[in-house]
DNA sequence: GTCTATATATTCTATCAAGACGAACAAATC
DNA sequence: GATTTGTTCGTCTTGATAGAATATATAGAC
């Protein structure tokens, strides 16, 4: 059996894919909000990121200080192959469950 | 915000749609296993069904005894409009999160 | 007919994993 | 040291999970 992903974990992984090199707590939260209208607290986002890293689905590196305007250094996240596999599998599960239904239902 | 669905709750609701009039604990579990290859315990299935009913997304009625081959009476479940709405919304969220990615990713 | 074996299905109990939030903390620049 | 930006902590609620226990129907023995 492949790795089990929670509902929000899926969203975070997909956000990481979209954000590519610019994925850190703040942008992840923003990307999800922008696309889905769903706003969550930072606590939720970071907890999920930590859990995903724990599971070996993503990695993190600490970014350099930007000479812009104050603030703590960013912790950038990147999705790993195992992470892509996990999302892919969990989307596939949904696809097989929606197969045969009316078009508006199929393929989330 | 629309009702929040857990990952397995989605699968159960979709199974109910497929099974239509023949949805009860055993068939729900079987349908999910058949389609996704994922087998869960009955405890999990019934707990989820109970939770979904609690939330007002599905209803249940007790079936008649079948003159077949022993066994307890079945408890049939049916998805309610609110349930359809909830799955629909949660699938939509995934669609918006996969939009723009390679075809193999899009639309779970 | 009643009794017990068997098949079928659901509920209970306990525990761990995920999701959620707000406050606290940390570290950069000005 | 004040401000800005970003992350971590503590705590609680909800969702997922398995396995044992329980319930209830029929079949067949007698």
Summarize the structure.
By secondary structure, chain A is mainly alpha-helical.
List keywords for this structure.
mainly alpha, two-stranded antiparallel ribbon, elongated, DNA-binding
Task: Describe the protein.
The structure is a homodimer of 108-residue chains. The first copy, chain A, is mainly alpha-helical. Helix content of chain A is 52%, strand content 9%. Chain A has a two-stranded antiparallel sheet with strand order 1-2. In chain A, helix 1 (7-19) crosses helix 2 (25-36), helix 1 (7-19) crosses helix 4 and helix 2 (25-36) packs across helix 3. The longest helix of chain A has 18 residues, at 81-98. Chain A starts with 6 loop residues before the first helix and ends in a 10-residue tail after the last helix. The A-B interface holds A 1, 4-7, 10-11, 14-15, 17-18, 32, 35-36, 38, 87-88, 90-101, 104-108 and B 1, 4-7, 10-11, 14-15, 17-18, 32, 35-36, 38, 87-88, 90-101, 104-108. Chain A binds a DNA duplex (30 and 30 nucleotides) through residues 4, 6-9, 24-26, 40-44, 46-48, 50-51, 65-75.
Low-confidence stretches of chain A: none
Rg of chain A is: 15 Å
- Total strand segments of chain A: 2
- Main interface pair? A-B, 34 and 34 residues
Strand order of the largest sheet of chain A: 1-2
User: What structural class do the secondary elements of chain A suggest?
Assistant: mainly alpha
């Amino acid at each position: 059996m492949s790795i089990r992903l929670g509902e929000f974990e899926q969203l975070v992984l997909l956000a990481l894919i979209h954000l590519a090199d610019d994925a850190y707590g703040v942008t992840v939260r923003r990307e999800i909000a922008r696309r889905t209208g769903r706003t969550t607290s930072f606590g939720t986002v970071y907890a999920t990121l930590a859990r995903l890293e724990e599971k070996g689905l993503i990695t993190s590196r600490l970014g350099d200080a930007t000479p812009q305007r104050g603030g703590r250094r960013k912790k950038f996240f990147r999705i790993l192959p195992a992470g892509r596999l996990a999302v892919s599998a969990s989307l596939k599960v949904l696809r097989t469950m929606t197969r045969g239904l009316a078009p508006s239902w199929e393929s989330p």
